[in-house]
# Entry
Amino acid sequence: MSLRSFSPMLCLVLAACQGGSDTPAAPQPTATATATATASATPTASATASVTGAPTGANEVKETNDLYSFAYSWPAAAGNIPALAQRLEGQLEKSKQELIDSANKGKEEAESNGFPYNTYYFSEKWNVVANLPGWLSLTGDFSTYTGGAHGNYGRETIVWDKKVGRGFPAIEMFTSPKALGDALGKKLCAALDAERAKRRKGQPRGMGLPEFDKCVGVDEATVLVGSSNGRTFNRVGVWFGPYVAGPYAEGAYELTFGVDKAVLGAVKPTYEPAFSRVR
# Structure
């Protein structure tokens, strides 16, 4: 995991970003449309840090100083699985060191060019999507600022196989992003367009950029798996980050679909027992 790289569209539409100050904007809230279905920082006296750990397995780390702000957390359901907690701890340390290195470089460049330095930040919060007898589905929502008009944000997933003791992105449960996209078919495009229409309320479509009006493929999304029955995965989420399905000001798009026969057909055979159709 690294300080995140975002959609290639970012370079094309950065000039259309809203908000021209150098103060990072807070991540935009997402909306859900349901379809049927090694430099090191030297903190100053103003620095603060806190760590909240363990009896329950939940963990939260926060650190703020004149160079950077860092936050990372995960829930008890993840922390109570030792191997998963160890993996998240490793990601925490890697993300923090990358932030420190990037912030040191950014501050040096700002000072050498006579510009003010705006504190860099990185935060990630892991949340439970579904905790099933054999599986734990998590999403990690992260935000970052490394200079520029505003920060950015994104989402990643881990599906943890409790029996085998390993985790992987949810999309790996499917034969391919294309296969899942084909299984969702026209429902995906219809749900995305319906959500766009609600947000735009008659305003110019996609700021006049055709890229923000097209149907976006699953290969450009973060896929998550959820459950309404507490036993199997019977829901699939498709999350499009900023600049993927619309301009930054519109926020992320999250669409949720029930698992049907077509979606089951896109699941890898080894994971079929973990899924069921929505009743």
Notes: The longest strand covers residues 120-131.
